[in-house]
Amino acid sequence: MTKEISNVKAVVVYHSGYGHTERMALAIAEGAGAELLLIDPQGNLAEGSWEKLDNADAILFGSPTYMGGPSWQFKKFADESSKPWFTNKWQDKIFGGFTNSASINGDKLNTLEYFFLLAGQHGGIWVNMDIKPANTKAAVRDDLNRMGSSIGAMAQTDADASPEEMSVGDLETARSYGRRVARLAQQFLQGKASQH
Fold this sequence. Notes:
This protein is an alpha/beta fold. 38% of the residues lie in helices and 19% in strands. It contains 6 helices and 8 strands. The radius of gyration is 16 Å and the shape is globular.
């Protein structure tokens, strides 16, 4: 059942290779009051997931960053989203995205840009971050937005670290970003309702 913040229906559609991106997806979903839609190891969604995406007000994309971009499983999902694209089913929905990689940079920005372009192809409205980067000498690993991202939530997890060892700050950044997406989706829905 889709959890809602007010009357916003939000979904998080994501692939996770080793559990780190899933932990991030859980934080995003908690913030947004969203339902999780897992892209499985074969790049498929569970039955009924496409209908949930079509009926959502807000969609958040998530994938680890592999070789400078999202996983092939996420790309398979993106290619299959051409079906709703043909009929404008996702037009005017609110979108956001998040990613994790082992390296500090890890080309995570490229993954977020991929999500941004995918949302744009669907005629969607992208939500950027509203947390200033933690970029002073006093900054520590668990500060909010320590990756300094502007267009979506980023996390960094050492290659030999378990999902349980993820940065608390990265997860709280994801949670806060989820709240922002839901809040702006709510404002957008209220604006649309007032025009009718």
